[in-house]
Write a structure and sequence with these properties.
Blueprint: H1 3-22, E1 24-25, E2 32-35, E3 45-49, E4 68-75, E5 82-87, E6 98-103, E7 107-112, E8 118-121, E9 128-129
Antiparallel strand pairs: 1-9, 2-4, 2-8, 3-4, 3-7, 4-5, 5-6
Amino acid sequence: MSARGVCVWGVVFLCVVSVCQAGRQMPKLSNKKLCADAECSHPILIARALEDYYPGDCRFISLRQGQVVYVYALLKDRGNMFWAGSVQGSYYGEQEARLGHFPSSVVEETHALMPATNEVMTDNWDFYCN
């Protein structure tokens, strides 16, 4: 094989490795979550961020003080230390809502919407990072 052929295959290999490593499973934060429904598709409460929060990894979302957060799940195993939800606001302009986890200690509940009575098992996709 020519040097050029080796170079082309090297570039293809690097591209494939980069794509495969771009998404990865992260350690589970919990094995169970409490939700309003079996799919965790309905918000259970609205909360407001008490302070700015900058996440340590891609499972989490950043929050700005005063920002509204729609909470969809309460992670159950560790005393509800983490919740799952979405944010969108004028700070983010036209971006779509961002989904992820955040510590429950950095928000305060402002409105209860639906009871979180469904216990749902988490899976690896709950903690998948792009």
